[in-house]
Amino acid sequence: MTRSKTTKVDMGSNLVPALIMGVAAVFAATIAVYVTHSRWQAHGSKTFSLLMLGVMVWVAGAGLEAGLPVPATKILAAKLSYFGIVSVPPLWLVFAMRYVRHDRWVTRRFLAALAIVPVVTLVLVLTTESHGLVWRSTALNETSGTIVYEHGWWFWIWTGFAYGAIMIGTLMVLSLGVRGRAVYRRQGIAIGVGAMIPWISNLIYLTGNSPWPGVDPAPLAFTVVGAIVAWALARCGL
User: Fold this and answer.
1) Which 3 state secondary structure label does DSSP give 84?
2) Domain tally for the chain?
3) What CATH number should be reported for the domain holding residue 111?
4) Residue range(s) defining the domain that contains residue 44
5) For residue 10, which of 105, 104, 101, 144 has the smallest C-alpha distance?
6) Residue 236 pLDDT exceeds 70
7) What are the φ/ψ torsions at residue 190 (nearest 5 degrees)?
8) Given pLDDT bands bounded at 50, 70 and 90, which one contains residue 183?
């Protein structure tokens, strides 16, 4: 169920987050291009470039959702952002596995299994009006100009999967930072601690405490993590 699809809202209150998201999308794309062309042989760099492209799509969609004036177009932007959202957690996990030199675990069978929940989630998001498994309903918050989502049960399955993938990947990176050689220690700890920021940011959003009401700051936080990882790639090649 979707309500208030044609009502226009004042863009002024969300112009700042929309512009910031737009700049972050360009920054994420720049990081992906930089790593691809400058550090393509660095360990995990291919996966990291794909990860940053996912972040770019996510943050661009979030910016459009915040800035567009019509609820129907906001919801469309939110759906498009899921092409990035569903790719980021599994790509982060794969990047972490390659970063800690566990490439042997990254098999075709593992990747296929890892893709099941993201692919199902994307399909359910694109068709949510017919079943309500991801969003049971949507409504316009006329005060903030944002869309309020009533989540279905599959959304929480996806959230658990995403948090789990990010947390496992983060712990793997931190473990190398703590126990690895000195050359990896500072980079590993910086990346691992930085990776907690998006998780905490999304949790703040889900509990209704975002600094921008109705706007998820997690994609911005992932852009910051991307900058940290790019620094680590440039610093020592991981």
Assistant:
1) helix
2) 1
3) 1.20.1070
4) 12-115+155-236
5) 144
6) no
7) -60, -45
8) low
Cα 216–Cα 217–Cα 218 angle in degrees, nearest 5: 95
pTM reported for the whole predicted model: 0.84
Classify the C-alpha dihedral 53-210-2-127 as positive or negative. positive
Cβ atoms of 166 and 89 within 8 Å: the answer is yes
Residue 78 lies in a domain: yes
Q: Which two tokens stand for residue 87?
A: 């790719």
Q: Identify the residue whose tokens are 């997690």.
A: 218
Summarised one tens digit per residue, pLDDT across range 63-100 is 998 888 888 999 999 999 999 999 999 999 999 999 88
Give me 158's structure tokens.
């996806």
Contact (CB, 8 A) for 78 and 238: no
Does some domain include residue 37?
Answer: yes
Taking Cα atoms as reference points, which of 223, 215, 165, 217 lies closest to residue 194?
A: 223
